[in-house]
Write a structure and sequence with these properties.
By secondary structure, this protein is mainly alpha-helical. The chain has three domains: 23-110, Arc Repressor Mutant, subunit A, CATH 1.10.10; 124-262, no CATH class; 304-412, no CATH class. The protein has helices at residues 28-40, 49-62, 76-80, 82-85, 101-107, 113-123, 134-142, 149-163, 174-185, 191-202, 220-233, 276-284, 288-303, 308-317, 357-364, 380-383, 403-412; strands at 171-172, 238-240, 249-251, 333-337, 352-356, 368-370, 376-378. A three-stranded antiparallel sheet has the order 1-3-2. Strand 6 (368-370) and strand 7 form a beta hairpin. The longest helix has 16 residues, at 288-303. The radius of gyration is 22 Å and the shape is globular.
Length: 413
Amino acid sequence: MIPVPVKPFPTYKWRWLSVAPTESLLEPPVFLGVLRVLARHEGEPPSSPAIATELGRVAEETQTRVDLVRTPERNLIRNSGQYWKGTGLLLPDRGDIHLTPLGRMVAEGRVTQGEFASIMVQQTVLPNPWTYTPPEIELWSEARLEFRPFVLILQVLQVLARRYGGVKESFITPWELIRICIPLAGTKARAEQIAEAISLQRAGKLNVTKWPDCTPESNDHRLAREFLLFLAHYGFCRMVHRENRMEDAFCLDEAYGTEAIGIEVPASIFDPQDNSAEVVQSIRHSQLPSIIERQRMITSVLARPNQARFRDSVFEAYRSCCLLTGDSMGEILEAAHIIPFRNGGADTRDNGICLRVDMHRLFDSNHIRLKATGALQFSDALVASPNYAFLPRRIRLPDFVNPANVAWRDKYL
């Protein structure tokens, strides 16, 4: 029996980075593209014309619908800077642009997308001081309420998979997040209770119409949906679009233990003292980054079951030889996209590389980065691995590879 939840206080709601969300800013090519522009202009004011010019190029090359340029007086960082400040990448209230040590590591590719996303899952706690006022935070404190929203959502999905029908039931919609998960989280309900309530509601055995409304204002639905969008954008789950966006399904394609998600790292990237190195190392020794890569791989297979033509054309172009290692055993070779299919990359040989299986995984997870010049850049984790010390620092790109594809990937992924 699921009791009707009671709001811990009248203004209880979930917000992460913004009171006026701009959903597309969290898409990795846009988010990382802007971060790398900021990294190139540290010490300059956000209203700098040079920054505006580069942001215009990011908008054009990523084809985002978001206005990244705006005006000098209402520039992107002044309006939406909390997307980079609230994720621990940009220092607050400095006037000029200054990245945190973590921000520089992400911008330089030393921390991969998967590692950054894992840090956000582990480190994001509600209430977030970036989007809650001091009086609101006081209300959370009085209610003794604090939790990690991404961890909770992922644990709910795991319980749905393990107890209520396998991976076909391991999804959550924005409506279920808003009407079931958020109200129950306000009562300190555990993931098991929330998953049970979702399962009962789906079976028509639980009526939640009289449950409290935790999204009463116009932007509140979008604020809540942002949590799910982040998980989808960074590979924790797959989004299945439906006619009503509140019914979009955010799905897991593989069940794994809840202990893999709920790791505790005492250090915080949000402390005044720099704990980023300790946090990054803790994440690298966890299962979270590898979980993301497995989910991405499964998602790719499900989304594109007919890749044989692309594979054949790449193998023919590279004469069935790994570009990085020279291996030619067909059993261990794969065709990798330079610009991923999910980002509009074409199934053509000018957008393909023949790679050994492990090289493909490292390339897709950005542990190996390729420059248009043929230079290779490695993540800190890969540099620390003695197993890959043999990798070259530069290669010669075949003439048929489009260097613009390589440059796009390097700038936005």
